Amino acid sequence: MSHHLDRVRRAIEFGTPDAIPLEIVDVPGVYNAYHTLDPETVTLIPGTEDFDALWTCCYSWLHTDIGRTPEGEPLRRDQFGTTFRVPADGRSVYALLSHPLAGRETLAGYAFPDPDDADPSFERLGAAIRDRYPDRFVDGFVDAGLFLTTELLFGIQEFLLRVATDPDLVTEAYARAMEYYRCLIPKYRRAGAHMITVIEDIGGTSGLLIRPEVWRRRFKPITRRFIEAVHDAGLYAGLAIDGHSGEVLDDVRELGVDVFSVFDVHTTGLNTLREKLVGKVCVKAAVDMQRTLPGGTPAEVARDAEALVRAFSRPEGGFIAQVVRWHRPEFPAANVQASVRAFSRHRP
After folding, report:
1. At what angle are helices 298-312 and 270-277 packed, to 10 degrees?
2. Could you count the other beta carbons within 10 Å of the beta carbon of residue 65?
3. Distance (Å, rounded) from C-alpha 342 to C-alpha 333?
4. What's the CA gap between 141 and 195, in Å, rounded?
5. d(CA 60, CA 292)
6. CB-based burial of residue 73 (10 Å sphere; 0-12 exposed, 13-18 middle, 19+ buried)?
């Protein structure tokens, strides 16, 4: 077993890794930033060449080009039928245009996508992993996840309204989306994934987007079935929650996830995350992508990185550091490098 794989597995299993593992997103030949970058043009962030793990960004979101706006912006349709444009200003990766279940009272007449249509993308991913990264730990991300996929089927505002007025319909759609993604699990495994992480965009700025009891009753059991399917395939299971997750951190442990990923630590709060998770679930974290990385100073980035290490890393493991440069928009280079330097102090 390579030392990269061993280091990550020991961190996840609290098996005393020799150092804090480092995961990166900007992976040449893999990262495509929601299909707005050619993976072959991606370069490693200086200082991350000896990374341990990689995040396969956005391979669950496939699309077809359907034209351009008069201004030349690409128009696309994803595999579920949601249409969007890619803004020319480079500040975001998509702007939503239409939703296939908007205004529908039932799922009758709507066809969920065929998982096998994703085979060419997974074949390309598998080839890149075998050719370039056979000794690295691969985290296969499901992004958009179950919750966001269902939101996009109806449109975000209509989805939130129907959670209150027609919960059976949105629960059925959520379950069907989960079944689609469950069929991708063996494809990820064949491509070389060691873990699958589902991103659930259920958090807002100060709490969940829906009432916690509704999430627990309607959506948590379906999420659990997905986590169980990942484990049944012999893979580690990860969960990421964008936004405030404090109200459901106890549920995260009950779901049986191996790794909890957090990208905006200040939203939930470092103390809350530490109290609920340290020693119980391995935490993967980047310097806060909502506040510090885009708007802080390099000194503030370094302080945040050190705070993450102090909060989550123990001699027995339990922490994976993540470095992100992102794209559309790209974080200030000095801040990205500050995170690399800070995390590298805890690596060989």
Report:
1. 20
2. 11
3. 14
4. 8
5. 28
6. middle
- Spatial neighbors of 168 by CB under 8 A, at least 6 apart, are none
Task: List Cβ neighbours of 267 (8 Å cut-off, separation of 6 or more).
Answer: 203, 205, 243, 244, 288, 290
CA torsion through residues 81, 82, 87, 92, sign: negative
101 CA to centre of own chain? 24
Any alpha helices (H) in the chain, and if so which ranges?
3-12, 119-132, 146-154, 156-165, 167-191, 212-214, 220-232, 249-255, 265-268, 270-277, 292-295, 298-312, 333-344
Q: Would you write out the chain's pLDDT as a tens digit for each of its 348 residues?
A: 799 999 999 999 999 999 999 999 999 999 998 888 899 999 999 999 999 999 987 555 788 999 999 999 999 999 999 999 999 988 888 899 999 999 999 999 999 999 999 999 999 999 999 999 999 999 999 989 999 999 999 999 999 999 999 999 999 999 999 999 999 999 999 999 999 999 999 998 888 999 999 999 999 999 999 999 999 999 999 999 989 999 999 998 899 999 999 999 999 999 999 999 999 999 999 999 999 999 999 999 999 999 999 999 999 999 999 999 988 889 999 999 999 999 999 998
> In angstroms, how far is CA 303 from the centroid of its own chain?
24
The architecture of the domain spanning 3-344 is: Alpha-Beta Barrel (3.20)
List the 95-98 sheet strands across, edge first: 63-68, 74-78, 83-85, 95-98
CB 324 within 8 A of CB 343: no
Q: Where along the chain do its domains lie?
A: 3-344
pTM of the model: 0.95
Tally of CB atoms within 10 A around 340: 20
Q: Which two tokens stand for residue 93?
A: 């990766």
Q: Quote the tokens at residue 289.
A: 């992508």
Neighbours of 2 (CB within 10 A): 12
3-state helix, strand, coil in the chain (%, to 5): 45, 20, 40
